[in-house]
Design brief:
The protein is α/β, with parallel strands linked by helices. The chain contains 7 helices and 6 strands. A 6-stranded parallel beta sheet has the order 3-4-2-1-5-6, with helices on both faces. Strand 3, helix 4 and strand 4 form a beta-alpha-beta unit. Helix 1 packs across helix 2 and helix 3 runs parallel beside helix 4. It is globular, with a radius of gyration of 18 Å.
Length: 241
């Protein structure tokens, strides 16, 4: 099956990206610093997300920085934050021009005011765009998201018997994103690492040995082709053929 043969109802509405291998890619490709792999990975994210939107995908969630990533070296954390600031201040103009909406999923605690303001400006600037939604999972943890959703429900005064899955979903970060249909993880890693635990209830998992900076639009086509072959039963009977 060629990518052009994938029909609309076989296209995932929401793709999740866990990109591993930036530093290993930099080392293998002779970069002066392994941090340069993050820069190339950042460029790959822009390219792959835009290509996904062109294919008909509505939402792309990218795991750019977890709550555990603060444990990395200060040098690396500072580098990652500068990359994010660059995207939100400079490259957002390009995304906005292409009709991409930007969202942030994660806790604001620990982020510098300059970062928070840049993100807020980007979210407001792009809020009416309809080409596709690029959600940055920044300072994000799947368990923390569920804890925050529970706290919001408690603050609203709901009784225990009123709590339903629908209510929890309404109180997640950016509930309008909906469930993830296809989750792609690179560099041979095969785990969720707390990524979008609620939205991944019935996700189709796709793992590749490609390191994220080397992941191309052609690689996304392969993932989409594989997704189109999956029989998604959601706990029910298999589809009749």
């Amino acid at each position: 099956m060629q990518s052009a043969d994938i029909i609309t109802d076989m296209m995932p509405n929401h793709i999740g990206l866990i990109f591993d291998g930036n530093r290993r890619w930099a080392k293998e490709n002779g970069c002066k610093s392994t941090l340069e792999g993050h820069k190339q990975g950042y460029d790959s994210l822009k390219s792959v997300a835009e290509y996904a939107f062109d294919k008909g995908v509505r939402n792309v969630s990218a795991f750019v920085f977890s709550t555990e990533n603060w444990n990395r070296s200060k040098k690396e954390v500072d580098y990652l934050m500068k990359l994010l600031l660059r995207m939100m201040k400079r490259d957002i103009k390009e995304l906005h021009k292409k009709g991409v909406k930007v969202l942030l999923l994660g806790t604001r605690i620990g982020l510098k005011p300059e970062i928070l303001q840049a993100i807020e400006d980007a979210v407001v600037k792009t809020e009416k765009n309809i080409k596709g939604t690029l959600a940055f999972c920044l300072n994000y943890g799947g368990q923390q998201e569920l804890a925050d959703a529970t706290a919001r429900i408690v603050e609203k005064g709901y009784k225990s018997e009123e709590i339903t899955p629908a209510l929890i979903e309404e109180n997640l970060y950016a509930p309008e994103l909906g469930p993830i249909d296809l989750m792609i993880r690179t560099s041979g890693e095969q785990r969720l690492s707390g990524f979008q635990l609620w939205r991944c209830s019935y996700v189709e998992l796709y793992f590749t040995d490609k390191k994220w900076p080397a992941f191309s639009n052609e690689d996304l086509d392969l993932a989409l082709q594989e997704f189109a072959k999956r029989n998604r039963r959601f706990g029910g009977d298999a589809k009749k053929t």
